[in-house]
Amino acid sequence: MNILRIKTHFIIAALYIMLAACQHEQKRLPILGERHATTKEVDGKTITDTVYQTIPAFSFINQDSVTITNQYFDHSIYVADFFFTSCPSICPIMSKNLLKVLEKYQGNEEVKILSHSIDTKYDTPWVLKRYANKLGVKGDQWQFVHGSEAAIYGIANKYMVYAKEDSNAPGGFEHQGWLILVDKDKRIRGAYDGTNTEQVNQLMADMDVLLAEYLPGKE
Amino acid sequence: MRLPIIGTLFVVLLISMDACQSQDEIKKAQFFTNGKSLYTTHCGNCHGEQGEGLGNLYPPLTDTAFIRNKRAALPCIVKYGLHEKLTINERFFDTAMPGNGTLSPQEIAYILTYVGNSFGNELGLVHTEEITNSLTTCNEAK
Q1: Residues of A with CB below 8 A from B98's CB?
Q2: Are A99 and A134 in contact (CB under 8 A)?
């Protein structure tokens, strides 16, 4: 009887220690996309480093007809998506969910949102501005951008989001509703279904984890 | 001996309860259920799961007076969209609504029975014949 009790205590204690160890371990988001190894010489020693897929430099026109480049996002983590203002299918839900993200991080300069319009003909900056206003977007954390067809569809590939003009699709464009989480080094750290409330909640939880990586004292 | 009597009474009770629920009530429940899933597919993205709309982009479906007064026009709006300016719950809307040309009168009856009896609306059953009649009056009908 006594031995059994001691054993039980021991197991409980062991569990506590394991649990404590887990809590100390910082959760980190994976780095998505392609990667390759490079070797370089640092202080006479050859070291191997991993090079991750990053979002290349870009330049678009935003809802205020101002040029927005990748530099605008240099000191922020950001969420990117692809939509169009006359979209009758998934975009309204994505926009509504992104509005939740904006509300949570409103005023936090480390967080931005970048919505690319895939309707490059109709969605001029003026149309984007009206859309943002009607949606109730405040401040400049959420950027709606207009670009050439080649530039927008080209960068969609870099975010690993499928987008294509298709007269058979509702509204004339076929596209995926991913919300892509990008870190301050322009690496992709997560992809979430922008139409799914649970996944959007996960996105916001993951954004907190990602922001924690940049806290002073952390790597 | 008592058990069969109680059983019989129970069956009689069930039948009389069933009769209380009129034919239209049953139909309304069917239309409502079918309408709910069609609403999610065709309407909910913009008008919201709770009919709350979205900002000043898409109007809510909670203005019961509007829904009641526009009853005859609703089938046309669902099928052919709307290109008019609206003021609903003191909010102004001018985004064009796309039509849902593929919906049949039956499906529109399902949807309007759902919308018409959700979000505070109380239209009751919207019959398929009512939809068919309304659709002949649409400006867009060719």
Answers
A1: 86, 88, 171
A2: no
